[in-house]
Design a protein that fits this description.
Blueprint lengths: L2 H11 L17 H19 L1 H16 L2
Length: about 70
Amino acid sequence: MADTAARTAVRTRGRGAFTPSGGRPSSRRHPLVATAMVLPLAAFLVVAFGGWEAVVTHASSVGVMLGR
């Protein structure tokens, strides 16, 4: 019974670790794919929490600070 953990560790050592999304952690995602994945969530959060007004307010104040 005590050998079970050791055998499992040896068995999984040869395999690469997988991320929850199914890919290997060393793989890289194209920036456009990452952007396409994030935009729906970002749009939902903007609508749900009224973030658009905050973005406009901050952009306006930054523009005033820069003298535009």
